[in-house]
């Protein structure tokens, strides 16, 4: 029987494990390991469900780079700033550099859908800034997936390639 006591090897020898049930300790160890595995799996699964959807609403984001028309990641033009703020109610707002904009978004797990972007009526004085802003809006509308890692938000297209890379805005001095 697994819970039987170990037999004494000899009457004169003292064995430190004598009298301890072997099977009981093995069973306890297996149960504790199983509980640990279940907790790790559960914590990872529940964290993944809420991380993407809630992490993007924790702070506003500044665009660091975007995919240009050639498909390469490009930093923003010097002196320009593009921002986005994801709200808990499924609305996003921000500045495209010249115009303010808004849209609706939905996130489930890491999948993302963004509605058509509504743009304000301001225009850029610089043609390059206008082109950058239009490219940003088009990419935002093609969002398919997102990941937040080390305080960097990356939005991917349906082909799995990054479209937009955001960072938290730098504090104003």
Describe the structure.
This protein is α+β, with helices and mostly antiparallel strands. It folds into 2 domains: 55 residues, no CATH class; 111 residues, Lipocalin, CATH 2.40.128. Helices cover 28% and strands 29% of the residues. It is built from 2 helices and 10 strands. Strands 1, 2, 3, 4, 5, 6, 7, 8, 9 and 10 form a 10-stranded antiparallel sheet that branches. It is elongated, with a radius of gyration of 28 Å. About 3% of the residues have low confidence.
What are the SSEs and their pairings?
Blueprint: H1 22-55, E1 61-67, E2 73-75, E3 83-86, E4 91-95, E5 100-108, E6 111-114, E7 118-119, H2 127-141, E8 145-149, E9 152-156, E10 162-167
Antiparallel strand pairs: 1-2, 1-3, 1-10, 3-4, 4-5, 5-6, 5-7, 8-9, 9-10
Brief description of this entry?
The protein has 173 residues and is α+β, with helices and mostly antiparallel strands.
Record field, number of beta strands: 10
Over the alpha carbons, how many angstroms does the gyration radius reach?
28 Å
Weakly predicted, low-confidence segments = 45-50
The 3D shape can be described as elongated
Q: For the residues shown, what is the average pLDDT?
A: 83
> What's the SSE pattern?
HEEEEEEEHEEE
Number of helices: 2
């Amino acid at each position: 029987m697994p819970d039987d006591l170990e037999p004494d090897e000899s009457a004169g020898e003292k064995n430190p494990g004598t009298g301890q049930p072997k099977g009981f300790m093995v069973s306890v160890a297996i149960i504790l390991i199983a509980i640990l595995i279940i907790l790790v799996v559960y914590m990872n699964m529940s964290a993944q469900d809420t991380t993407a959807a809630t992490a993007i609403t924790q702070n506003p984001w500044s665009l660091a780079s975007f995919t240009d028309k050639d498909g390469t990641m490009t930093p923003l033009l010097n002196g320009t700033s593009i921002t986005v703020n994801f709200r808990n109610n499924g609305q996003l707002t921000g500045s495209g550099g010249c115009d303010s904009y808004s849209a609706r978004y939905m996130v489930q797990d890491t999948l993302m859908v963004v509605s058509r972007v509504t743009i304000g009526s301001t225009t850029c004085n610089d043609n390059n800034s206008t082109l950058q802003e239009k490219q940003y809006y088009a990419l935002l509308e093609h969002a398919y997936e997102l990941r937040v890692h080390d305080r960097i938000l990356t939005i991917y297209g349906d082909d799995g390639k990054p479209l937009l890379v955001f960072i938290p805005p730098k504090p104003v001095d």
